[in-house]
Amino acid sequence: MVKLFCAIVGVAGDAFPVNIDAGQSVGDLKKKIKKDNQNKLKDVDANDLQVFAAKKGGAWLSSRSEDVKKLKNGEKTALIEALTTEELQEEDPLEDMLSGMGPPSFRQTHLLVV
Predict the structure, then answer these.
(1) Fold entry, domain 2-113
(2) Does the predicted model carry a pTM greater than 0.85?
């Protein structure tokens, strides 16, 4: 089980945690995100969510970075725009995204949700 912190791009608010087994798929993750955020995502089906890895230079984004601070205010920076170009595919295992990365931990943002 891993705890991933997700941020919804373009919506002000703090990142939220999602606990999920690393062996599950991106599709399973989308369903979990939708279930845990029914009010914020009430007009979006789980399979219509777009999910992106929040990695820069082989590291997770720090929650204290200027980019993440702006993201929490509902703003998009050039870095956030760049990170939302390669969508994780629904059938991909989460293990693929986590491969080669340090273990997800607190004070990091792991996923961007559009």
Answers:
(1) Ubiquitin-like (UB roll) (3.10.20)
(2) yes
